[in-house]
Specification:
Elements: E1 3-14, E2 17-28, E3 32-36, H1 43-51, E4 58-63, E5 66-67, H2 72-76, E6 79-83, H3 94-104, H4 110-120, H5 136-147, E7 154-158, H6 166-183, E8 186-190, H7 194-200, E9 203-208, E10 211-216, H8 218-224, H9 230-236
Parallel strand pairs: 3-8, 3-9, 6-7, 7-8
Antiparallel strand pairs: 1-2, 1-4, 4-5, 9-10
Helix pairs in contact: 3-4
């Protein structure tokens, strides 16, 4: 399998406590890896380390075989991020927002790409509206459109469906599955919704107190921990 990301012994200490401790895993091309764990398990810290927003205390991150600490800018051209908690400037129109990011990513076919994404996410009619007029579902779709501007090979998603109504959450999931199946995009997604993460992920990584408790396909994990459902497994692990 083609490995696009390799994390080895990643640790992060905030003052006296470890938010991540010896976390190691790989991400394969076209794979969706779901990260679950209780509040404070280290999910966001892991995503932030993978984005280079915070420096790990120790350990290594390699994207496409390249050290992230040495080849940061080259790597970030192929990676993007979306979260339901990180909004876009509200006073800009949808089109303006995407334009700002398209320029940041030095896109060449800016107009075409923005039109394509606005249509894909059902936001074309709203392109001249200010971002503040969007519902939370539409905002998430705009964040995803922004995240896809540079055709990332890896997409990091921190709770992308949190706070979305079930219909919009399902649409978002379908789109992520389409991206992984049709464009071979590798996706890391965190969520508190066990049913959702089980449905969408090829493999699951369960974090607890900054450490990996389990990693594998749902089937492998259920067998290993002799559980009937992910929920049972989750409680069995005392998460
Ligand atoms: N900037 C920071 N300074 C100090 N401690 C931090 C900082 N960021 C995170 N932590 C601590 O690191 C641990 C992991 O936090 P993190 O936000 O990564 O967990 P999480 O799994 O994303 O939680 P949640 O599900 O609540 O979003 C927590 O104990 C948190 O208090």
């Amino acid at each position: 399998m083609d490995t696009v990301l390799e994390v080895e012994n990643l640790s992060k200490k905030f003052s006296t406590s470890w938010a991540l401790k010896d976390v190691s895993f790989s991400l394969y091309r076209g794979e969706i890896l779901g990260i679950v764990g209780p509040n404070g398990a280290g999910k966001t810290t892991l995503i932030n380390c993978l984005l280079g927003l915070i420096l790990p205390t120790s350990g290594t991150i390699k994207y496409f075989g390249l050290s992230f600490s040495r080849y940061r800018s080259q790597v970030l051209e192929k990676v993007n991020f979306a979260s339901n908690y990180v909004g876009l400037p509200l006073s800009l129109t949808l089109e303006e927002n995407l334009l700002v990011y398209a320029h940041l990513y030095h896109l060449k076919n800016t107009k075409e790409k923005i039109s394509e994404l606005l249509k894909l996410f059902g936001l074309w009619e709203k392109r001249k509206q200010r971002t503040r007029t969007l519902s939370s579902g539409q905002m998430m779709r705009l964040c995803l459109a922004k995240a896809l501007l540079n055709d990332p090979q890896i997409l990091l998603l921190d709770e992308p469906t949190a706070g979305l109504d079930p219909e919009i959450a399902r649409e978002t999931r379908d789109l992520l599955l389409k991206l992984s199946h049709e464009q071979n995009t590798s996706i890391i997604i965190t969520s508190h919704n066990l049913a959702e993460i089980e449905r969408i992920s090829d493999r699951l990584l369960i974090l607890q107190k900054g450490q990996i408790k389990a990693l594998g396909t749902t089937e492998e994990l259920l067998k290993k921990f002799e559980a009937q459902s992910l929920e049972e497994l989750y409680f069995r692990l005392n998460l």
